[in-house]
Amino acid sequence: MFDLERWQEIFETIGKNKLRTFLTGLSVASGIFILVILLGFSSGIQKGVKTQFEQDATNRISVWTRVTTKEYKGLNPGRFIQMRIGDYQAINEKYEEDLEYKTAIYNIWGSQVNYKGETGNYRLEGVSPDQQFIENASLTSGRYLNQDDMDESRKVAVIGYVIQKDLFKGENPIGEIISIWGVNFKVVGVYTDPGGEREESRVFVPLPTSQIAFAAGDRVRSLAYTVKMSDNFDEAVAKSTAISENIEQDIKERHIVAPDDRSAVRVNNTLEEAKKIYSLIAVIRNVFWFIGIFTIIAGVVGVSNIMLIIVKERTKEIGIRKAIGALPSSIIGLILQEAIFITALAGFIGLFAGVGLLQLVSPLVDNDFIKSPQVDFNTAVTTVIVLIVAGALAGYIPARRAANIKPIDALRDE
């Protein structure tokens, strides 16, 4: 129930101690302000990292090979490990139940692409249709590669949006013929990629076509897979890690590579990397909460000190109230209400200042690691709860002290 007289008392007390109340409120507002800014940037870091992982499927396993660095079974170091289509087929067969999307890749960096006098150098990749989902590519027009393209070794190509802008100058490229190192391909689709311009500067063609057209035989440069996800993230990471390790071991056994040669066969597991990064973000966010909470505690101690001083100054008044029948609960309620009001008012000022500042700087902060730092609704609600609890804690000890004042002692107080 709203008690006007009690609120008049609170404002009168605050009015008598303007400077003291202002300085204490400033410490609470600063604590909330710092907490909001820290949590906002924590959210920005999380968005930035998430964007990085969205460039490709989060549950991707990539396999590529290099030169051996160790002697093994009579074979000297320095051998280049060349994967072939047979390696890809063997892995597919062995892990068929666990793999979602898969492709072998044959690529040529800096391939010369021509269209009606326009020329550019872009990366050519011979892939299977699953590459669209492994790369998180989205079509803006036309279609992606399909199984018929693979089976018939068709000379068709899907180009990135950057290539469309560079070579076609706004024209519709679907159905047009481009030349790649003198070999003609028909453009059947245009794609965009969340990885940006670097990822959109590629030409995808059917893997068999690339091997035939550019005399690659059965050679492939790398393999890419996604693992079927389970509902439990930790289980999915463990499963993906186990498959990655097994694939690495299989490739090494097929090409007679030392088990401890970390350079010859490289396997990258984005799901495992994602877990490490997200765990680090969680630690950063907890540290930010720790710093913010202890900054707020400093302000709460200030509010508690103010309330203790106020109780001391009003000892005689409180004693008279109790002498004429005021209940301890009403005394406690008055002190708690005043403490919560001061803390909440200062805290909301800090909260709105922090949110306002983030809204101003958010459009200006956009790089690979921090994107649009903002405070979400759940964080704002949590901050409000922290404010209320902090105010109650700030007023509890002074309120208990006020409630324990004996009328006879209070009347003797000078």
From TrEMBL:
Transmembrane stretches in the record are: 21-41, 287-311, 331-357, 377-397
Q: Which residues form the ABC3 transporter permease C-terminal domain?
A: 289-407
Span of domain MacB-like periplasmic core: 21-239
Give its localization.
Cell membrane
This protein's superkingdom?
Bacteria
What Pfam families does its record include? Answer: FtsX, MacB_PCD
Membrane topology of this protein: Multi-pass membrane protein
Q: Is Cytoplasm set as a keyword in this record?
A: no
Which keywords describe this protein according to UniProt?
A: Cell membrane, Membrane, Transmembrane, Transmembrane helix
Protein family (similarity comment): Belongs to the ABC-4 integral membrane protein family.
Name of the molecule in the record: ABC transporter permease
